[in-house]
Design brief:
- Two copies of one chain form a homodimer.
- With 385 residues, chain A is an alpha+beta fold.
- Chain A has two domains: 3-24 and 277-347 and 377-384, Alpha-Beta Complex (Aspartate Aminotransferase, domain 1); 32-276, 3-Layer(aba) Sandwich (Aspartate Aminotransferase, domain 2).
- In chain A, 37% of the residues lie in helices and 16% in strands.
- Chain A has eleven helices and 16 strands.
- Chain A has helices at 3-16, 32-42, 50-63, 74-84, 101-109, 128-138, 170-179, 231-241, 265-296, 330-339, 366-374; strands at 67-71, 92-96, 113-117, 139-142, 145-148, 154-158, 183-187, 195-196, 199-200, 207-211, 224-228, 302-304, 311-312, 318-322, 345-346, 375-378.
- In chain A, strands 1, 2, 3, 4, 5, 6, 7, 10 and 11 form a nine-stranded mixed β-sheet that branches. A four-stranded antiparallel β-sheet of chain A has the order 12-14-16-15. In chain A, strands 9-8-13 form a three-stranded antiparallel β-sheet, with no helix packed on it.
- In chain A, a hairpin with a 5-residue loop joins β5 (145-148) and β6 (154-158).
- At the A-B interface, α2, α4, α5, α9 and β15 of A face α2, α4, α5, α9 and β15 of B.
- Chains A, B: This is GDP-perosamine synthase.
Amino acid sequence: MSPLPAAIVDALRTVLGDGPAPLHEPRFQGNEQRYVQDCIASTFVSSVGAYVDRFEQQLADYTGARRAVAVVNGTAALQVALRLAGVQSGDEVLIPALSFVATANAVHYLGAVPHFADSAEATLGLDPAPLRDWLKGIAEPAGGGYRHRHTGRRLSALVPMHTFGHPCDLDGLLSLAHDYRLTLVEDAAESLGSRYHGRHTGTFGRLGILSFNGNKTITTGGGGAILTDDERLADHAKHLTTTAKRQHRWEYVHDEIGYNFRMPNLNAALGCAQLEQLPDFLASKRRLTVRYLDAFARLESVRLIQEPPGCESNYWLQTLILDEAVADQRDAVLTVTNDAGLMTRPAWTLMHRLAPYRDCPRAPLPVAESLVRRIINLPSSAGLA
Amino acid sequence: MSPLPAAIVDALRTVLGDGPAPLHEPRFQGNEQRYVQDCIASTFVSSVGAYVDRFEQQLADYTGARRAVAVVNGTAALQVALRLAGVQSGDEVLIPALSFVATANAVHYLGAVPHFADSAEATLGLDPAPLRDWLKGIAEPAGGGYRHRHTGRRLSALVPMHTFGHPCDLDGLLSLAHDYRLTLVEDAAESLGSRYHGRHTGTFGRLGILSFNGNKTITTGGGGAILTDDERLADHAKHLTTTAKRQHRWEYVHDEIGYNFRMPNLNAALGCAQLEQLPDFLASKRRLTVRYLDAFARLESVRLIQEPPGCESNYWLQTLILDEAVADQRDAVLTVTNDAGLMTRPAWTLMHRLAPYRDCPRAPLPVAESLVRRIINLPSSAGLA
């Protein structure tokens, strides 16, 4: 065993002890059983029920968004948010190459084309400076906005994603979105609890989205939400995600093509209980960061990612970055740690390396290419510290 | 109050008693609380867990399909089933005009165009005879299959839906599908428990789908399933509905554009308990039919829908049909019954009357047009009789 992987296992053991550790498991120590039992007893487990309303209100209160609309998962939330942001079939949407595939899929479902941009080393999220340079070269004014001069497609939206819970440079991206007439939609799937200059991520764009998948900071089994300050957009989001059925005592009139995307009440019941514990989860995750920082301080060729200046990260996934000099040991580290029962994983495959997105337009991606060879996510569950 | 609405309320009261009655509410008197509690205690509430596997196996065993793949809802199931059936963007897909909007939406999500066909009075589902006549006129051979000569679009699939749980004429439709090289995909969203010549609906086409929405015979909160006898299609369905991620110890490689459509384990836990009670639910619903038949026997201008010959219906929604002579009293009946706390509803608005589908191709729809003016669904929950 080469020294670095073994040293990383040792460092992890000082924090996690001798047992196995999953990457991120949910924690149900609050009112989960009670609320879910109550939900079943009420018989309202599906598309109508008080927990959905309550969960939406709790999310709005917590994030500071005027409205939250609970849906079936984060992908569905992003698809609908992009549609409401005006993304149309044939548009291009700027998204990070370093993201989970759902970001690109949501664009694709609308008939639009993802256009990949680079990340910043400091935030792991979209870097506005090189993206501005790129747009200077490829964007030309057309119809009140901009189009990609090589493809002729309208550039309609910009979708930053807050990687592993670390807020990206929203000021820079908002300025860029303004200058290029791009609607900013935040993919905050990973960043519930993360704040940028004191304000919750997902509330800076015209719309933002959250995810409550089982591996997220809080879970509803499967679930997501759309955030917006615009009441009209929120009402429209609710309409679209409930099959666009008009209110009527008995008639079934659907006035546009909607989706069956509403979060079931059963899942919202779990979410209400989880959200009550979010402050505790976040505090535990920050303690874990402190302990990992201490454990990895002696290792010279690796660095634990910390929240960017001016930001408060939720530390959804704790992340180690290998120095370039030892990047070739990434797979050895992954093998040895996973063999030891300490679940680690690399970043996602960059979007433009995936077969279905290989031919999409993209900016130069030197930082994302470097990051993806060096990132290792560590066991990160709430309750580990 | 005119005599007919009052007589219908009286008839309903003889069956349902004095209290209010919803159209269809779920019934949780089995292992629901136990399985859901166990699921939460296991922490596996989301995209991995034993209840999903168990629910899929139970569904396969019950329906006789070789495989069942549990997904997030019936709409998602139909979208993926149609994709697996080879439906492509720009195709036309034959579906009943008399259906819930999800049938048309699933076609639309794939970039295909619904083409509406008429129903049979006896089954409420697609009528193969007039559809054959229609296709004789508008279909022309092209590329090994048929295309619609007026639109130039390929006719790729035929989607019968078993309305309110009554099996439609599958023999006639299978023969038609064979002759016109249409892939048959069954929308069995409403017909869990319904059999055609002894075999479960949803298992006749290349693929079939089920729904477990809150208003269905059994519920998972929100949920659906894809049924197929083709192992390769089932594996592909599982792959597509889990973001098309290849199995790997840590790499994130998605080899095609998939969906986040997997049923959460929490919802599957509810489903396992519900499925155990399905035989009791079906027996109760059949008892209710007998009681409604008796109660409405004296009313000359209405008729309770019964299962078609050779079929066993699940009687998901009990359905009254008004004679043509009293069709103009439908809204009065709806008003008076709902005012009395006895929830009734009409059939859906026919698909070609909805704004987003107004311009889609359609066959003549005289029977559907007539049925939609005369159908009234009655309180139908399991446990009422």
